[in-house]
């Protein structure tokens, strides 16, 4: 007789807490039985009064597996008392009272029916994973409970979450804890050799584990690519007595079942899994865990509007959950592929998805639910302001919401499709113009894993090649991921069925064909790009949003003048394009006619040293066309030339000897009289429009400044009195004076290093005797003479 599950002793406390307070937080480690036992234990509660229980799971695999396990415990088929619902798949009957759903399903239901009529309990399972959908679902459920349904009961269940923060969010709900049951687990740290890739290290550890111990092996890897490579390595090293089964979200159901249940032929099993096996699933027979210490996580950059998958180190809580999988039914072993001291450097918990995710889907869901500001709801972590603002801007650009954040009719239709807002916008617009079938194929290709595995050294970012595979017009050769292709075709069919049910009005007939590039541009209007000149071996582009992007050498799209990028990273200095399509300029002009800005500009061209008058057409940062303007205003030329001179500095002007002497004379007087204009470089640059501007009539090139009378321009800074005084205070010519004539002036000793002036005598007396100005001596036939040289 099997031992009772650890969760069973606390089931009465959970039921009582819900009956009295309406909310409860359940803390129980993986394997305690909370997923299977809690919903069934609540079915017969008197206060439930025949209403249903909806339980949220973070993944499709866990949703289906939980429903089958619950139904099996009741001795029924799925679809009777217990059913499940997820995107594109459901097994629900009239008698269903426990409905296991993926988290996004609850959001859709709350949008359509905020009262959740007929639902008595919401169970948020595995809430510690803190997915974006779970956070949103809980926030919307709490609003419903506060405003419409005070009888709606909420259970939040977690393996490793800080229960106190959730309890506060639920109005100081009680916390019920199960300590679970675990057999002893030996932890072995095996630091891989530096030259060995993680796939090789995992394969080595698996082979060693099979040799040294008993039971099945569960190995954690970051993604499907690593799983496939480890599977290939093990195929060369294991005999037929061991079966290797992958486990990740995109596998078809039969393949997932082979990983979850014991082998039918009794063989030992090696399960190669992503992080989905940490807590959400129970895999029978596991005695050994091999942990790579890595996982794959999406990271969104508000600066660029791009999301990329990053391979990151697991947190301490995730590592502990993985380790715990080895001790569920018997003593086990966990191989950790890192040095023991590195454990202290791991994060305690993985950061919530809401803090680093693309918030466009969240923003659309909130708008459709009638929430214009995130602050209107209660959150464990409020959506970051910068990321949410950028999400709002994208939705406005896609016509999904208005400036206030209220969902438009178009946005309402988009939300019904349960895909990213970019793809939803493309699908709805495609239906309006009669191009929905191709749009469904494109959306499916962009939603699933890439269907084309490029052989090493072969680069192919052209999405049209993937579309050919979808339609069967290209042979599915060895470089095709058949499972991804199968899923993409299924998703396309699902989208087509869903799109057909939408009440979308067709627009007027389009007098042009709508091809693949135009559809992608509808989804990614900010990622239309034009090729830059030059660029070396790689084709370099400027995106509409101003970012740079590049295609790898040898890519078939490298010669395209315009592309629209569907997938790219946000690395510096140029984003790497992974999926794109070539698009004609005519398509760009047709799609974005109302967004193309036409403007006239008169600018200085540094390369030619000329002022150019141009009319330009731009789509964001993309220059579409430029042409010369025949007769722009003279003031425009003058302003552009003055701006160029100001950037170069006044010293770069063609100063003649006469202009230099005039400026020195003015500077001499200004140094002794503050009412005179300052003629330093900074001062002249600040008043450039005033003294030089009037002299630039007809000037178009810097070289033509040689014809400008800078002396006359400088003198324009003086009023008529100052002009008359300049010749008296600082004469422009040299007057020799006999040394003897200085004696009556009292000059006995001339200053050392002298170089200055004396005519007329009163001015010279003041300059020399009072101010000590330098004097220049010359030897002549008459003896020493003094010269005043301006």
Outline the secondary-structure elements.
Layout: H1 11-21, E1 23-27, H2 34-42, E2 52-57, H3 60-73, E3 82-86, E4 89-91, E5 98-102, H4 103-112, E6 119-124, H5 132-147, E7 153-158, H6 163-169, E8 175-177, E9 185-189, H7 198-212, E10 216-220, H8 224-235, E11 242-247, H9 253-260, E12 268-273, E13 286-291, E14 294-301, E15 306-313, H10 316-324, E16 332-336, H11 360-368, H12 385-397, H13 409-415, H14 421-432, H15 436-447, H16 463-471, H17 482-501, H18 516-523, E17 528-531, E18 539-543, E19 548-551, E20 562-568, E21 575-582, H19 585-591, E22 597-605, E23 610-619, E24 622-628, H20 634-648, H21 657-672, H22 681-686, H23 688-691, H24 710-715, H25 720-729, E25 737-738, H26 761-770, E26 776-780, E27 783-787
Quick structural overview:
The chain is 35% helix and 19% strand. With 790 residues, the protein is an alpha/beta fold.
Which features does this protein show?
single chain, 790 residues, alpha/beta, Rossmann fold, Four Helix Bundle (Hemerythrin (Met), subunit A), 5 domains, eight-stranded mixed β-sheet, 26 helices, 35% helix, elongated, disordered C terminus
Structure notes:
By secondary structure, the chain is α/β, with parallel strands linked by helices. It starts with 10 loop residues before the first helix and ends with a strand. 35% of the residues lie in helices and 19% in strands. The strands form six sheets. It has an eight-stranded mixed β-sheet, with helices on both faces. It has 26 helices and 27 strands. The chain has five domains: 8-177, Rossmann fold; 185-354, Rossmann fold; 358-366 and 374-501, Four Helix Bundle (Hemerythrin (Met), subunit A); 648-729, no CATH class; 737-787, no CATH class.
């Amino acid at each position: 007789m099997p031992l009772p599950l650890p969760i069973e002793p606390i089931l009465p406390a959970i039921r009582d807490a819900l009956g009295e307070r309406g909310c409860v937080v359940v803390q129980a480690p993986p394997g305690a039985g909370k997923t299977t036992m809690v919903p069934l234990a609540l079915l017969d509660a008197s206060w439930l009064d025949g209403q249903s229980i909806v339980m949220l799971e973070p993944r499709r695999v866990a949703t289906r597996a939980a429903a089958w396990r619950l139904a099996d415990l009741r001795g029924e088929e799925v679809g009777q008392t217990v059913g499940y619902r997820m995107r594109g798949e459901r097994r629900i009957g009239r008698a269903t009272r426990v409905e296991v759903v993926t988290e996004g399903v609850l959001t859709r239901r709350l949008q359509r029916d905020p009262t959740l009529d007929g639902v008595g309990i919401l169970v948020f399972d595995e809430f510690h994973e803190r997915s974006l959908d779970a956070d949103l679902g809980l926030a919307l459920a709490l609003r419903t409970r506060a405003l419409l349904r005070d009888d709606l009961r909420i259970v939040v269940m977690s393996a490793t979450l800080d229960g106190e923060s959730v309890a506060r969010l639920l109005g100081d709900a009680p916390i019920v804890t199960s300590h679970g049951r675990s057999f002893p687990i030996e932890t072995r740290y095996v630091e891989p050799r530096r030259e060995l890739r993680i796939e090789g290290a995992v394969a080595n550890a698996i082979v060693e584990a099979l040799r040294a111990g008993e039971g099945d092996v569960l190995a954690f890897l970051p993604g499907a690519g690593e799983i496939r490579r480890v599977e290939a390595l093990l195929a060369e090293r294991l005999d037929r007595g061991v079966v290797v089964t992958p486990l990740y979200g995109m596998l078809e159901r039969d393949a997932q079942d082979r990983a979850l249940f014991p082998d039918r032929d009794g063989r030992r099993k090696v399960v190669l899994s992503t992080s989905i096996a940490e807590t959400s699933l129970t895999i029978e027979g596991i005695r050994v865990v091999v942990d790579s210490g890595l996982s794959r996580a999406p990271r969104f950059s508000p600066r660029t509007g791009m999301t990329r998958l990053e391979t990151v180190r697991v947190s301490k809580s995730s590592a502990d959950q993985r380790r715990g999988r080895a001790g569920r039914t018997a003593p086990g072993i966990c191989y950790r592929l890192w040095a023991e001291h590195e454990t202290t450097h791991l994060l305690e918990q993985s950061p919530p998805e809401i803090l680093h995710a693309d918030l466009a889907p969240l923003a659309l869901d909130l708008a459709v639910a009638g929430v214009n500001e995130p602050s209107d709801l209660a959150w464990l972590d409020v959506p970051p302001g910068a990321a949410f603002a950028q999400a709002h801007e994208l939705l406005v650009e896609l016509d999904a919401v208005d400036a206030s954040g209220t969902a438009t009719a178009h946005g309402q239709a988009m939300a019904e499709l349960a895909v990213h807002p970019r793809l939803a916008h493309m699908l709805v617009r495609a239906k309006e113009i009669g191009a929905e079938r191709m749009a469904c194929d494109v959306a499916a290709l962009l939603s699933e894993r890439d269907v084309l595995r490029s052989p090493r050294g072969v680069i192919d970012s052209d999405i049209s090649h993937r579309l050919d595979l979808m339609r069967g017009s290209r042979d599915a050769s060895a470089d095709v991921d058949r499972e991804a292709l199968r899923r993409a075709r299924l998703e396309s069919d699902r989208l087509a069925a869903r799109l057909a049910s939408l009440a979308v009005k067709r627009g007027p007939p389009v007098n042009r064909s709508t091809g693949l590039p135009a559809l992608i541009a509808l989804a990614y209007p900010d990622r239309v790009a034009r090729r830059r000149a030059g660029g070396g071996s790689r084709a370099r582009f400027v995106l509409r949003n101003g970012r740079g992007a590049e295609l790898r050498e040898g890519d078939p799209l490298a010669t395209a003048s315009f592309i629209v990028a569907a997938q790219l990273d946000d690395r510096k200095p140029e984003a790497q394009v992974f999926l794109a399509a070539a698009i004609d300029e005519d398509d760009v002009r047709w799609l974005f006619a109302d967004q193309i800005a036409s403007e006239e500009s008169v600018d200085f061209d540094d390369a030619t040293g000329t002022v150019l008058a141009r009319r330009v057409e731009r789509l964001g940062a993309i220059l579409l066309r430029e042409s010369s303007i025949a007769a722009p205003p003279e003031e425009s030329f003058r302003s552009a030339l003055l701006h160029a001179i100001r950037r170069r500095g006044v010293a770069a002007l063609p100063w003649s000897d006469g202009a230099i002497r005039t400026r020195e004379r003015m500077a001499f007087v200004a140094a002794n009289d503050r009412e005179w204009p300052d003629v330093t470089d900074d001062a002249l640059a600040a008043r450039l429009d005033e003294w030089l501007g009037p002299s630039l009539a007809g000037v178009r090139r810097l070289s033509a400044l040689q014809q400008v009378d800078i002396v006359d321009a400088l003198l324009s800074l003086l009023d008529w009195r100052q002009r008359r005084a300049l010749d008296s205070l600082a004469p422009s010519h040299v007057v020799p004076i006999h040394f003897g004539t200085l004696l009556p002036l009292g000059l006995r000793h001339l200053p050392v290093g002298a170089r200055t002036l004396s005519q007329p005598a009163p001015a010279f007396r003041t300059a020399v005797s009072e101010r000590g100005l330098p004097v220049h001596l010359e030897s002549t036939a008459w003896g020493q003479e003094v010269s005043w040289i301006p």
